[in-house]
# Entry
Amino acid sequence: MYDPQYQKQYWKKNKKKIQAKRREMQEQLTAYQKEYYRKNRKKLLKYMAKWREENQDKIRGYAKKRRKKK
# Structure
């Protein structure tokens, strides 16, 4: 079952089906995420603001690291 040759042949044979299935799953996930964000936008924004307040030092540290790399 896990023979590399078999997997290669299986991939070649079913490539389009597999990719279509992956694409469909990704689209469903994206749609769900968009809907969730749309429904809970206010809650999420409040949570993000609260998180930013509590973790100012982390944010500053991250910004410093980013500046040094450039």
